Amino acid sequence: MSERELIQQRLEKIQKLREQGVEPYAYQYARTHRAIQVLDQFASLTGEQMSGEIVSLAGRLQPMRAHGKTIFSHVQDDSGRVQLYFRRDGLGPERFELLKHYIDMGDFLGVKGPVFRTHAGELTVRVDEFTLLTKAVRPMPEKWHGIKDVEVRYRQRYLDLLSNERTRWIFLQRSRIVKEIRAYFDGLGFLEVETPMMHPLAGGAAARPFITHHNALDRDLFLRIAPELYLKRLLVGGFEKVYEINRNFRNEGISTMHNPEFTMLEAYQAYVDGAAMMELTENLFAHLAKIIHGSTEIVYQGQKLQLAAPWRRITMQGAMQEAVGEDAWNQTPERLRALCREHKISASEKMGKAELFDLLFKYLVEPKLIQPTFLVDFPIEISPLAKCKPGAPHLADRFEPYIVGHEFANGFSELSDPVDQYQRFEGQMQQREAGDEEAHVADLDYVRALEYGLPPAGGLGVGIDRLVMLLTDSPSIREVILFPQMRQIHIPSDDDETSEETPEDESANPV
Questions:
Q1: What distance lies between CA 72 and its chain's CA centroid?
Q2: How many Cα neighbours within 13 Å face the side chain of 280?
Q3: Domain tally, the chain
Q4: Rounded Cα–Cα distance for residues 79 and 110 (Å)
Q5: What's the mean pLDDT when you consider all of the chain?
Q6: What pLDDT band is residue 145 in, cutting at 50, 70 and 90?
Q7: Cα torsion for 166, 170, 175, 181, to the nearest 10°?
Q8: Is residue 339 part of a domain?
Q9: Is 19 among the domain residues?
Q10: Is residue 113 a part of any domain in this protein?
Q11: Number of C-beta neighbours around residue 281 at 10 A
Q12: Which pLDDT belongs to residue 381?
């Protein structure tokens, strides 16, 4: 049958069930056990024993295998699955026929009965009673063998979770990682806080924002590109250690490493500098590796990585000079543009010196940074919120950790001089006027806050999605975001009469 015919068949079953007084969509069901509890509690049962205790389970029904007057199946909940054994003489002819003809794989069922072990050695519930909890209208994907089409997996994540155990594992690990990050920072005495997601100014990072409009105030607001300036205001206000696990939004491209909506950890600590935040970063990564893998040595896409501290440190300009054979930062924009051409890197004519340098670095240096490496000593021109390196006013006391060719965090000694910060903002605004849409905006209230005094402080931002990718050996950011942003296309099915593009909301018409 086609999917459309199967759906129609199930809709007819729903109608017939209601005619027989069976409601296909229950309100609740009282469970005594989850699947894992049954497997643990009755693990000692032998093949000749039947538990005296009656258990009650609920979950999604997996394929049924009929053998005359008996039916075997499994029920799956979020902890695992347990085999079910239905008997005609136990249920009665009427209930057995209802099960056989009106219940399908994918339906949610509540079951009651004792537990025993089959001759094959599998713990099984002998079902003496069952209750239909939810009738699934659409058939389950590929008979539970797993969805391979990544377009379907990402666009219909519920099917991916139903059919792919690895996907379920990834998101269980993601939850565990976030929980461990919280515990780690809480253990260090940090205070978890929440800052606004709608900003009057898009500040705190070099990125293009999403714009929304507040009707009551009749003003445009910006979805948060970074919480940095708000978190540092809290240090001005007297808090000394703060962190936030936050959602950020940047109006940029989509790739295996970028999603317009993403999760960040940002942390700020008074009376320490960027070096202390580097140490915090490498210790955090090593700690999480031990929690998830039991070791600081992990494998990512076939590459063995050692996350134990200390990590290697190299200067940005030194790494760049090694890659191009000259001191690229002290070259003119024209020379940097020529270097881009020499290395077949596409560069816009509107790009300034900092953007060109960053572009060359992205293509020529980043891919070579495989083992955990701190990149330090950034040009001050591309670090408008960081303190200068002591004794080197042309450099920022800033770091970025790179692993397997990708940036995973950013941190620095926080700029606390309000006059210097105001001048940096002015420079950034000049870049915006020259066409750089990602240059920082001037947040004068933040400057005002600095005038009241920001203590010496170090800051850190870690990309949670990329961190989860690393710790779960996932090649794409879409693998670790439950509902990633996708381009609008139509996914044809075997019932489609055309493959023309249609609006996304029409490609999933309700039955």
A1: 37
A2: 29
A3: 1
A4: 15
A5: 92
A6: low
A7: 140
A8: no
A9: yes
A10: yes
A11: 25
A12: 87
